[in-house]
Specification:
- Helices cover 43% and strands 7% of the residues.
- With 355 residues, it is of the alpha+beta class.
- The strands form two sheets. Strands 3-4-5-6 form a four-stranded antiparallel sheet.
- α1 packs across α2, α4 runs antiparallel to α5 and α5 crosses α6.
- It is globular and about 75 Å long.
- The termini are far apart.
């Protein structure tokens, strides 16, 4: 994600299939191009090939799971699709403090102990923000993948050269549009994070604070008390250190000190970072007659993919719905007899027959 909160594609590849070898090749080339940065992590679905490849190419780098894919597994495994458990699970995954996390996990256990055991077996660090060993900030799902799948859906049917040119022109257009938006941004932070900061600033005016030292403040939020340490950039609410953006309590302390908020924001959220992100253009491709193709490439024979006999008719394309897609519609409750959504319990064929 860039400093405006929009998708920033870094690399793409054409491979025979999503297997161990292709994912290993992809991450090897990615590492060659971008190196290894401090606090890097991977967020993906539960694809075993991605897990294997990253453990080989980036040994020791944390690998986190998309919280939406885990939820779809819970629904399928335990036939638990009702709204209360859904809201609890996603709130638990996004918890800012261990106290919040433990309280919500206790409520999940009351609904179904099997769900808590399943989440424990996966490993809390894989799906919970507060347990992550490096900061995930707002990246809790792999929805970026689904968004790019929609954009490139028709292009993936093109011949290989046309597909690659489509991808190049797509990124060329996006880079140009985002650079223009960056130049038209006049706030210190990009749009998304500046909006978040404004919301926190509005909330901060409802709180009261007092200073214990130059850097330590107590902030009262109704009946709750929070401790802000500006020197360590930490607040007991957890938001300041996990969002890397001043929370409402930190803004109270900053107002008390008559200090600006800039140094308490992640440098990745700034307009300056946004401009640097898009300063490198996607270069135009010359006419094919001008291409200088190495001899070993022209001599290489590329065989068609091997595989079983294809079934007649157009293949069906299936994908998971994202959390945002499902959450935007009315939630369907599962049948108590068979677990299937969308029909009434008394009309279910598995309903017990009356004597």
């Amino acid at each position: 994600m860039d400093a405006v909160g929009t998708i920033l594609p870094l690399a793409y590849a054409v491979v025979d299939s999503e297997n161990d070898a292709s994912w290993k090749m992809f991450f090897e080339q990615f590492k060659h191009a971008y190196g290894e940065k401090q606090n890097m992590c991977v967020v993906s679905d539960l694809n075993e090939s991605i897990l294997k490849a990253t453990s080989i190419v980036y040994p020791g780098m944390p690998h986190y799971s998309c919280m939406w894919h885990i939820w779809t597994n819970i629904r399928a495994k335990f036939n638990k699709g009702h709204l209360k458990l859904s809201e609890l699970y996603f709130a638990t995954a996004r918890s800012y403090t261990l106290d919040e996390f433990n309280e919500r996990m206790s409520k999940i256990e009351e609904i179904d102990p099997r769900v808590k055991a399943y989440l424990y077996d996966i490993g809390y660090h894989r799906w919970s923000r507060v347990h992550a060993t490096v900061n995930r900030t707002w990246t809790m799902t792999s929805n970026i993948v689904e968004s790019l799948n929609v954009v490139t859906k028709d292009a993936r049917e093109l011949p290989i050269v046309e597909l690659l040119e489509y991808m190049r022109t797509l990124l060329e257009r996006w880079t140009k549009e985002k650079l223009l938006k960056a130049k038209g941004t006049f706030t210190y932070l990009g749009f998304k994070y500046n909006e978040e900061l404004d919301d926190n600033r509005t909330l901060s005016h409802k709180h009261r604070g007092r200073a214990s030292t130059d850097y330590i403040h107590t902030v009262l939020d109704g009946f709750r008390r929070y401790i802000v340490c500006l020197e360590n950039k930490r607040c007991s609410c957890g938001q300041l250190q996990l969002d890397e953006l001043p929370c409402p309590h930190a803004l109270v302390a900053l107002r008390h000190r008559d200090e600006s908020y800039e140094q308490y924001c992640s440098p990745y959220y700034t307009r300056e970072s946004l401009l640097r992100t898009y300063e490198i253009p996607v270069n135009p491709l010359p006419d094919e007659s001008k291409w200088n193709v190495p001899q070993h490439i022209t001599e290489e024979v590329v065989n068609p993919p091997s595989g079983g006999k294809r079934q007649p008719g157009r293949p069906q394309k299936q994908r998971y719905k994202t959390y945002d897609e499902v959450n935007s519609k009315k939630y369907k409750v599962s049948c108590g007899n068979c677990g299937v959504e969308g029909h009434k319990k008394r009309s279910c064929k598995n309903a017990p027959k009356k004597k």
